[in-house]
Design goal:
Layout: E1 24-26, E2 29-37, H1 38-43, E3 45-51, E4 54-60, E5 69-72, E6 78-81, E7 84-87, E8 90-97, H2 106-118, H3 123-132
Parallel strand pairs: 2-8
Antiparallel strand pairs: 1-2, 3-4, 5-8, 6-7
């Protein structure tokens, strides 16, 4: 009699792993790109992302930077662990989509110019100063 009351012997399991478009696997973790708009990155938002565990909500915090990596914990590849199944994570590298001057409306451009004025000149100079404090 086997360990759990079944017949003794070997259990053979055949797994087939499918490639997912735009998803890279490294160990138990998965990696994807996430494109967010300029205003979403500045102000923060919640976006629905597709994982191997289905749709998940991912918080994009206010001030998210281009290239920043965000994580959906437990949405990666499953593997056996000491106390059951352990799941890897799904990481999303953020690409901030900056609209061209032709795409931005007059109201948006004026608002950005006003923001620059409020920050006292160059927005990039202000951001560099903030980063060094």
């Amino acid at each position: 009699m086997g360990r759990f009351g079944g017949l003794p012997g070997d259990l053979l399991v055949r797994l087939q792993v499918y490639d997912l478009a735009d998803v890279t696997r490294r160990g138990d973790n998965l990696y994807s790109k996430l494109i967010v708009g300029l205003y979403e990155a500045l102000l923060g938002t919640s976006v629905d992302v597709t994982t191997v565990r289905g749709q998940k909500s991912l918080i994009v915090p206010a001030g998210t930077q281009h290239g920043q990596v965000l994580c959906v914990k437990g949405a990666g590849v499953a593997r056996p662990g000491v106390n059951g199944v352990v799941y890897g994570n799904h990481y999303f590298e953020v690409s901030v989509l900056i609209p061209s001057a032709e795409e931005a409306s007059t109201v948006e451009l004026k608002a950005l110019q006003e923001l620059g004025r409020l920050l006292g000149g160059s927005t990039s100079d202000h951001m560099r100063q903030q980063a060094h404090q």
